[in-house]
Amino acid sequence: MIFVTGSTGLVGAHLLYRLAKEGKKVKALIRNPDKIEQVKHVFSYYSDHADQLMNAIEWVKGDILDPASYFDALKDVKTVYHCAAMVSFDKKHKTELLQTNIEGTANIVNASLEHRIDKFCFVSSIAALGNAQNGEVVTEENSWSPAKIHSFYAQSKFKSEMEVWRGVQEGLNAVIVNPSVILGPGFWNSGSGLIFTKAVRGMLFYTQGSTGFVDVRDVVDVMIMLMDSDITNQRFILNAEMIVYKDLFDMISEAFGKKKPGIEASRTMLNIARVVDGFLSRLTIKKREITRDVVRSSMSKSNYSNEKVKQVLNIDFIPVERTIDEMAGLFKNDLTKN
């Protein structure tokens, strides 16, 4: 039996589809049952038998912050995939972010230890990796430097990893994956999906910053491969390609037949937009989107190595351009249905 947290998120939903398709016995922790329909919609992208696959999953209503809500469900579980996490770069969410990601992970780790789970997979982030010096490539061996500037989200993921490593010291067999920005369909109003929602309306601005991107299907494939292997107590960067934001926006705009963004956003422009965005969010006119961390990220040029996972598992990642084309097609289909 397999236990999955974060089952209504991008990674969790795609993981559930793969496991259900393979006929695995799965329990999925779900905090809000209303979101089950969104998971079913993801299944429908890949199968004409979404209902049948969904019915094979045992849904457990609970919350990672409330161990009593799922503790008994782990009695017959052999492996745990911990995908649940909160993502936010808005400082007003700091307390909730740290609690959900750190305390929530500690709770799942503790429950897994008590039930003597065979193996544990934690979905971390490249945000939890140490900063490279002088533009060097970041690998799994980079050290976290508390002296550097880190977003609250990055701090939460790093400290979450520490809870997993603490579990390892107490006897837990675990693997950790550190994905770059995950691209995948079905969640058009959050995360990377928002870029597609904005692109279909047309994008004006771009930046010359860069970061890594990876297809959600690759993330899920690697997670399952690692869990089915004898590999334990290691972490792996999951990154298909390093892409400049300008090039990413161009590819998405082209996939929708829209004009490519033509105005480079300077740091000054972004900071002005940040102030305006903060003012409007305080008036509850819109959700906060542009923070100091977002500005910093959009201007920075990062470089993450995927050599370790490629060598260990002998895999090739899906090209980002292919992912974008396929996502744009699914987005268009969703628009026609609504």
Concise structural overview:
With about 350 residues, the chain is an alpha/beta fold. It has 12 helices and 12 strands.
Show the helix and strand layout:
Layout: E1 2-5, H1 10-21, E2 26-30, H2 36-46, H3 50-55, E3 57-61, E4 79-82, H4 94-114, E5 119-123, H5 152-169, E6 174-179, E7 181-183, H6 193-199, E8 205-206, E9 210-215, H7 216-228, E10 234-238, E11 241-244, H8 245-255, E12 263-264, H9 267-282, H10 292-299, H11 307-313, H12 320-337
Parallel strand pairs: 1-2, 1-4, 2-3, 4-5, 5-6, 6-10, 7-9, 8-12
Antiparallel strand pairs: 9-11
Helix pairs in contact: 1-7, 4-5, 8-12
Report on this structure.
By secondary structure, the protein is α/β, with parallel strands linked by helices. It has a domain at 2-184 and 212-242 and 302-323: Rossmann fold, CATH 3.40.50. Helix content is 44%, strand content 15%. It contains 12 helices and 12 strands. Helix 1 crosses helix 7, helix 4 runs parallel beside helix 5 (152-169) and helix 8 packs across helix 12 (320-337).
Write the H/E string, N to C.
EHEHHEEHEHEEHEEHEEHEHHHH
**CATH 2nd-level architecture of the domain at 2-184 and 212-242 and 302-323:** 3-Layer(aba) Sandwich
Query: Could you tell me the strand content as a percent range?
Result: 15-25%
* Coarse structural class: alpha/beta
**CATH topology-level fold name of the domain at 2-184 and 212-242 and 302-323:** Rossmann fold
CATH superfamily of the domain at 2-184 and 212-242 and 302-323: NAD(P)-binding Rossmann-like Domain
- Report the radius of gyration as a whole number of Å: 20 Å
Number of strands: 12
Number of helices: 12
Spatial arrangement of strands, main beta sheet: 3-2-1-4-5-6-10
Q: Unreliable stretches, pLDDT < 50, 5 or more residues?
A: none
The main β sheet shows up as: 7 strands, parallel
Oligomeric status of the shown chains? single chain
CA(first)-CA(last) distance: 37 Å
Mean pLDDT: 88
Shape: globular
In helices, the fraction of residues equals 40-55%
CATH class of the domain at 2-184 and 212-242 and 302-323: Alpha Beta
